Structure formats: C-alpha cells, structure tokens
Amino acid sequence: MIKKWSVSYPAVNGTEQRRVYVYLPTMYEAEPDRRYPVLYMFDGQNVFFDEDATYGKSWGMADYLDYTDTPLIVAAVECNAGPNNERLVEYSPYRFDDPQYGHFDGKGAATMSWFIHRFKPFIDRNFRTLPDRGHTFIGGSSMGGLMSLYALLNHNDVFSRAAALSPSIWVSPEKLDGLVGRAKLEPGTVLYMDYGSREMGNHDGMRKGFAEMCSKIMIRGIHLTSRLVPGGTHSEASWEKQLPFVIHTLMYELD
C-alpha cells in the first residue's frame, strides 16, 4: 500500500508543495500492533511509480517489497524540479562548481534539518514506526546517494543504516573526506554503497575515487557492503536491479 499526498516544503526558491509517498508493508493492516523500521528516501517521484518518475522509469520499490513481504516502511519526498538545477543545490551538503552547470551553493544541511526535525516526526506520529536510531535508515541515488552518505556520517545519532547508490562523491571530495574522518559514529553503523561499471567514465578517476572512499569508510569501522555493479548504469532501471542487495543489507540481522 502506498499513500501519497503533498506537504509544504521550504525549498531553495521559497515554500512550495512537494509530493510525499509512504509505502506500508503487506502485513501492516493485518497486524495492527506491529511497528516497523523506516527507510527515508530522496527523489521520491522515482521510487514507486513509473508515471511519476522523472525519466518514465521508477525503482519499482513497492513491487519488490510486496513480493518479498519485507516488514519495512518507506517514506520518500520528491526532489526539487526547478529549471535551474535547484535539485543539485538542495541535495548537496557543500558548495561546489561544475564545469557544465556552474556554481552551486549547497543547501544539503537545511534539507537534512527538514527531514530530521519536520518529516521524521510527522511519519512517527502518523504511522506505526520504530522511531529509534537502530530502526531508522536513509537511502538514495546519485545526488540522493551523496545525501544519504552525508546523513549517515553527519547525523549518525539519527540514522543507523544507509544505502548510497551511484553516490555523487565527486562533489567537494575534500570536504567529504574530512567528514568521513571526523564523523562521530555509533558501533554497528551499516552502509550499502555501489557504483555501476558503465558509469565509471562519467567523472575522471571515478574508479580510484570510489575505491578510496570505500577504504576510508571501512577504516572508520562502518559495516560496508560495497559493489561495482557489472554493466550498471546511472539509471533507475539499474538501481531497481540492486534492490535485493540494498534491502538485504539494510534489514540484515535487524533486531
């Protein structure tokens, strides 16, 4: 079951209405006393419905979770669809310059503040969640993957597990490296992170950069599941194929 509505969101260009999607697991109504972990996701328009997806293809998340009877709530918010790449501003923790698109003032910290202080409390009030850190996850792809990694590191007191698919770690790599090194991490922090073999050429040195990032994360004691996806591309169709790995990692040995 997927519930869908709009919320007032403090976007970079002023308050606007954003679509919110909440997936409830197959047993949610039949077991009225049961509570569930929550996976928060970026780019919500791409998570469930092809007709809402930016490029006409979604992750098919609900189909997979229904098929596997996974006891998980998924709460997703659509991205900024502004014509001037506002999504890159909203989904970047750091200021950065891109040779193709220009300069961006990263507002990712404000985005995460809304997720943590506004969106999560609303979800916890209105659905049968397990609101503690150990059952609160975050995930996304591309810039949403970067934000998921940032959230796990910078807000480890809120999120215990994350999934970062094709994360845009090329954005301000020095600042991201610094965050990895100084982040205050709880024991048992879990991360799924991947990159497609056919998207490695999108940015110079991506294979080396990805390998180095994985190494730094593992040194910090994070339980990392890292993959180079054979034939993987930068697309929802490719990310959909990774859902068995993603969900298995997030739900593995969960109390």
Strand order of the largest sheet: 1-2-4-3-7-8-9-10
Report the end-to-end length measured between terminal Cα atoms: 24 Å
- SS element count, helices: 8
What is the CATH topology assignment?
Answer: Rossmann fold
GO molecular function: hydrolase activity
Protein name: Alpha/beta hydrolase
Keywords: Hydrolase
Pfam family, one: Esterase
Topology:
Elements (H helix, E strand, L loop, with lengths): L1 E10 L2 E10 L14 E4 L19 H8 L4 E5 L8 H5 L5 E3 L3 E3 L3 H19 L9 E6 L1 H12 L6 E5 L7 H10 L7 E7 L9 H14 L3 E7 L6 H6 L1 H9 L4
Parallel strand pairs: 3-4, 3-7, 7-8, 8-9, 9-10
Antiparallel strand pairs: 1-2, 2-4, 5-6
Q: Could you characterize what this model shows?
A:
It is a single chain. The protein has 255 residues and is an alpha/beta fold. The protein has a single domain (2-251), classed as Rossmann fold (3-Layer(aba) Sandwich). Helices cover 33% and strands 24% of the residues. The chain has helices at 61-68, 86-90, 108-126, 143-154, 173-182, 206-219, 236-241, 243-251, and strands at residues 2-11, 14-23, 38-41, 73-77, 96-98, 102-104, 136-141, 161-165, 190-196, 223-229. An eight-stranded mixed β-sheet has the order 1-2-4-3-7-8-9-10, sandwiched between helices. The longest helix is centred in the middle third of the chain and has 19 residues, at 108-126. It starts with a strand and ends with a helix. The model has no long low-confidence stretch (mean pLDDT 93).
